[in-house]
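Appendix B, record 7
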Amino acid sequence: MNNRKKAKPVINQGGPRSTGSLDVYFGEKLRARRLMIVPKLSQEELGKALGVSFQQVQKYEKGVNRLSAAMMVRIAEVLKVDVQYFFEELPRGAKNTKEIKTSPRRDVAFRPRPSPDRRVP
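Structure tokens (predicted):
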């Protein structure tokens, strides 16, 4: 008889910080610029300049990992472009395809308070 516990199946539910279509868009722009500059910059070279692994650069380019604003600024410096480059040709009203869920506490925290004259004694 086998006494090993069975592993639980991994279910990817995509939490509030999961990546979406905008992350893929930014990754495509990153890759395009990296390959456009002369001489071309490898993922490894870009990673060294940013202080991350080439695997991390790969994940940014594929949209698997989200780019922070600070990282986007550093990448723009290394690739010799303005940060605005990543936002050019961005479709008007573009949104991530995955919903960002808010916690109930946040909803309560930002709910407008009733005016003093409407309060019930």
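Remarks on this record: The radius of gyration is 21 Å. Residues 21-89 form a domain with the 434 Repressor (Amino-terminal Domain) fold (CATH 1.10.260.40).
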